[in-house]
Amino acid sequence: MDDFPMTTVTLDLNRKGLLLDAEGKAVQPAAVPAFLKRRIAIPAGTTDINVFAHGWMTSKTSAEQSAQRLLRDINDLYAASPERYQQLRPYRSYNIVVRWPSKGRYRKIRNRAHRMSTEGSAAAVVAQLLGYLNTERHKPYRGPAKLRTSQGQYLHAIGHSFGGRFLCQAIQEAGAGLVRPPTLAWDWTKKDFPFTVDSVLILQMASPPDVFAKGFNRLLTAAPINCPIVLTYSKADHATGIWHRIAEFSPGIGHVGARAPAEVVVVRRLRPVAEDYTRDELKHRIVNINASARFKRGRFWLPQGAHSDFAHPETAHLLLSLAALAR
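^ thats the sequence. predicted structure below, dont judge the formating
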């Protein structure tokens, strides 16, 4: 592996979902493109762009630390065994962490996340971010499979908990043209490769199990993604198992997985690092990954349980595998 540095930048949102500048002042929607242009500069040697949005009960410091740990795990795993991920050679990441005020009671933060992503500006801001990245990056070659190369910069969306709601809402709004002014330059002309978010992984998503049949149904039919929607879940996740049930009258995806539309949902297990994922097992619209055997650590006096226990080599292996299968 070469010595290409792993770069991580942070973007902060306020309670209304507006971006904050370096002085903590809100960036108005019309000024977002110029702000992103100043804030984000993707190095020419980058191969993969990761956008990470954190979840419940996460301070700014913790959000950056947990994201950095996961992103370092990805780089370290690749550095240790690049031969495992032949399609990725090389792997050089540029990482963006989206932070938002998420500390408070579950129902309160659930409501805030919902307002920020539907009534507020969070989804529009993240959609503008994805659109900016898509415009600025070098597009991967989308020709016939036997001629496809790994040249270009692949775009990956990674969300945890309520951060998954932001990302799904943003991708859906962007694909439906709901963001004004239009911010996306996705190429819809190639019938075989119409979408350009190259992987979507939501860790312990805080949404009802039927959300993809209702609120996010357009993600399955008319959204700019060229990949399965992959969702981890764990029976030890108390935040989505207990508190989500109280707040939304059902367990969350992070506890039981997505359940609808049933005809496009499959269940797979979180594989050890030594085991490969295959394209056939992940070639479905919605893939639940049962991580109960690995995501199980949590302090007994905290209500989250294992909700935030996702930073493991197995998670890095899943992310690298999704990035490789996107080639």
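Strands lie at 7-12, 19-20, 26-27, 48-53, 93-99, 154-160, 199-203, 229-233, 265-269, 286-290.
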